[in-house]
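Sample intake sheet
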Amino acid sequence: MRHMGASPTVDGMKNTALTRSIPYWLLLALSVIAIVVGGWLTWDKTDTMQTTLLDGTATNVEVYVGQAWVTAGSALLAAGAVGIFLALALGAVSAVLPRPAVEVVEAIDWTSPDDDADAAADAPAEDDAQVSSAPAESTPDEDSDDGADDQNGSSGSSATATKISVK
């Protein structure tokens, strides 16, 4: 029988908040992708430069642009390494921090009949909707002479209706 306070495990991994965190897995996956792409760029461009320089067939594009690609690949490689170290640090911190204990308020007895449903069905229905006897608020009379006829399709502001300059 499993202990009530134990976390469920999947292949020996504890089911903690960090292992269920999508941003954590994105950090880890993108870091690995950055390491792979950065390593490939660095290796490929360095190999191309070395081959063409030793053959004597190197062009300006292969040498000078290749250096820029090696720099970009190295930056990706470094960013991936920082991401992996950050993921490891997050894992270490989450392992050290204490988790709050789950308090069981009341154990549920699944074998007892549901007496609350029978009592609710026997109780008389209450009328929650009460009609207000107060009169409805009066709306302004549309026939009142407040200058609405003088607007002739304007925006309706008093400054427009009376042609007052507002500054």
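Comment: The two ends are 79 Å apart (CA to CA). Confidence is low (pLDDT under 50) at residues 1-10.
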